[in-house]
């Protein structure tokens, strides 16, 4: 199941208002990372199911290391932490680039990140 789709934006509040106003999505409280200063995000939803993660990172926009706006990653829920761990082992054994080993994130997700064959970021969550 797709857990969420992550989109970077230069104007977090404007993009959040767009999805709330035109698509009746509801937002959680703004997350501000203590580990990565300048990173802020919202999760928006229609209720249960797939969510939309809106993100901004001031240093990202300034550095041009990655696109400052647009699609950033897909996240798939595999059910539990054990399945996350097992899938990461399998992907590593099959030669895929693991960008982040399983861990708890600051916004309370247990996740790992892998690159798909085209280099797209895929988060694997519980």
From TrEMBL:
GO molecular function, one term: metal ion binding
Record has Transcription regulation as a keyword: no
UniProt keywords, alphabetically: Dioxygenase, Metal-binding, Oxidoreductase
TM helices/strands, residue ranges: none
VOC domain mapped to chain residues: 1-126
SUPFAM superfamilies: Glyoxalase/Bleomycin resistance protein/Dihydroxybiphenyl dioxygenase
Keyword Metal-binding: yes
Highest taxon in the source lineage: Bacteria
PANTHER family referenced in this protein's UniProt entry, alphabetically: FOSFOMYCIN RESISTANCE PROTEIN FOSX, LYASE, PUTATIVE-RELATED-RELATED
Protein name in UniProt: Glyoxalase/bleomycin resistance protein/dioxygenase
Organism in which the protein naturally occurs: Lachnoclostridium phytofermentans (strain ATCC 700394 / DSM 18823 / ISDg)
Species lineage: Bacteria, Bacillati, Bacillota, Clostridia, Lachnospirales
């Amino acid at each position: 199941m797709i857990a969420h789709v992550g989109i970077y934006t230069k104007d977090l509040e404007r993009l959040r208002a767009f999805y709330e106003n035109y698509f009746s999505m509801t937002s959680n409280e703004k997350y501000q990372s203590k580990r990565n200063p300048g990173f802020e995000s919202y999760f928006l939803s229609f209720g249960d199911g797939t969510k939309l993660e809106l993100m901004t990172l001031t240093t990202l926009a300034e550095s041009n290391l990655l696109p400052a706006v647009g699609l950033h990653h897909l996240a798939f829920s595999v059910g539990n932490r054990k399945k996350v761990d097992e899938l990461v082992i399998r992907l590593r054994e099959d030669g895929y680039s693991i960008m982040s080993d399983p861990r708890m994130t600051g916004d309370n997700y247990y996740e790992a990140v892998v690159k798909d064959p085209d280099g797209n970021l895929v988060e694997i969550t519980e």
